[in-house]
């Protein structure tokens, strides 16, 4: 009986530690799932699955499909390969990214783990 209890305890502890190591997943207002990773410069949000965008450019319009990557800097700056530069912010209701070309990304009811960006407050939503 003691061996069985010990085995169950080890199994539960192993399962809990495996769960703790799972990446943090965010879901955007567009329904895309992103994994967040921190680095010295801020945070990188990388989509789990490819995303597609219609890029309007008259006769040269096209569809771009690839893994979506958003770079969120410690100074509230943001960068995207297609959307260019912008800013990111957090508020009581989640966080978001606003790009200079008018594109945006929202993560409602989700918290950031990046403490360096807590000064990136959007007063419109707080």
Helix content: 10-25%
The number of helices is: 1
- Major β-sheet profile: 8 strands, antiparallel
How would you sum up the global shape? globular
What are the secondary-structure elements, in order, as H or E? HEEEEEEEE
**What integer is the average pLDDT?**
82
Structural class: alpha+beta
Task: Please give the radius of gyration in angstroms.
Answer: 19 Å
Query: Which strand-content bin applies to the residues?
Result: over 45%
**Low-pLDDT segments, ≥5 res:** none
- Please report the distance between the alpha carbons of the first and last residues: 55 Å
| Sheet with the most strands: spatial strand order | 1-2-3-4-5-6-7-8
Let me know the number of strands: 8
Strand-helix topology:
Blueprint: H1 2-20, E1 25-27, E2 33-39, E3 42-55, E4 62-73, E5 77-80, E6 84-91, E7 94-99, E8 104-108
Antiparallel strand pairs: 1-2, 2-3, 3-4, 4-5, 5-6, 6-7, 7-8
How would you portray this structure in words?
Helices cover 15% and strands 47% of the residues. It has 126 residues and is α+β, with helices and mostly antiparallel strands. It has an eight-stranded antiparallel beta sheet, with no helix packed on it. β2 and β3 (42-55) form a beta hairpin. The longest helix has 19 residues, at 2-20. The mean pLDDT is 82.
